[in-house]
Design a protein that fits this description.
This protein is of the alpha/beta class. Helix content is about 40%, strand content about 20%. It is built from 9 helices and 12 strands. The longest helix has 22 residues, at about 1-25. The protein starts with a helix and ends with a helix.
């Protein structure tokens, strides 16, 4: 009898330990976290997410937990979040899961992309609006014609010169400075990260760049299967912002050492 009691206590203790360990682990799906999105996501040669703005924010907010990041393509991400218990959260929030029972969306934004039109200050043309670019050679991030609104889609459709969209944005940066394109269209932080890595001084001299703001920010929330996690995230983001730590995380990643 005493042996049976001891066994029950042992099994209960093991179950409690496993439950506590599970509650202390957070597995987040990041569908944008491929190797083409620094400084938002930093990925090593093995495909593991090692840092970046979004990963560092999540690690800071959930500093009392063991946070694991997984890159899963966007089309499969929502399905795996639903089917596999190990995944706790996802960002960006899948549209098809919004409003569904058991899925909770943050009020705070995890990711904000500031898409800009970038031209050399030495360019012979003036940019007053998107229409100013209809006869210019444009290079943009992949999907720009789909995501940047109707005015930009019309610009692309009616563009009389060369228009291309690139996946590997690090390769796109030199094309502006070598004057192989007239303008780039991408997130400002992505541009600044790659320009810094490639030793371009975008604020002075021959490589000075002008940034034109024609697009609203693209904002992405966090979704979790546990409301307590979302409440924790919203509160944590407010603290990061008020303390200035959020700005420091962004600056540290954008201006990473060469």
């Amino acid at each position: 009898m005493s042996f049976l009691f001891a066994l029950i206590i042992c099994l209960f203790s093991l179950s409690t330990t496993c439950s506590a360990a599970a509650e202390n682990n957070l597995s987040v799906i990041l569908p944008f976290a491929d190797n083409n999105h620094p400084p938002h996501y930093l990925v090593n040669d093995q495909g593991a997410i090692t840092g970046g703005i979004e990963a560092d924010i999540l690690s800071a907010v959930f500093s009392d937990m063991e946070v694991e990041f997984s890159y899963i393509q966007l089309k499969r991400a929502a399905i795996l979040l639903q089917q596999q218990q190990r995944y706790s959260c996802i960002s960006p929030t899948p549209q098809e899961l919004r409003g569904q029972a058991g899925y909770y969306e943050s009020r705070e934004y995890l990711s904000i992309y500031y898409n800009r039109v970038m031209v050399l200050a030495s360019s012979a043309f003036t940019v007053n609006s998107l229409a100013s670019l209809y006869d210019k050679r444009l290079l943009a991030f992949l999907g720009a014609s789909k995501y940047l609104g109707d005015d930009y889609a019309d610009l692309v459709k009616n563009n009389s010169r060369q228009y291309r969209e690139f996946t590997h944005l690090s390769m796109a940066i030199p094309m502006l400075f070598l004057k192989r394109v007239d303008a780039l269209v991408m997130d400002k932080n992505v541009f600044m990260y790659h320009a810094n890595k490639q030793d371009y001084d975008v604020f002075h001299g021959k490589d000075k760049v002008l940034f034109y703001d024609f697009f609203p920010p693209s904002r992405f929330t966090l979704m979790c299967k546990n409301k307590a996690l979302i409440d924790h995230f919203d509160a944590g983001m407010k603290k990061l912002r008020l303390s200035g730590e959020l700005s420091r995380i962004i600056e540290r990643n954008v201006n990473a050492p060469r």
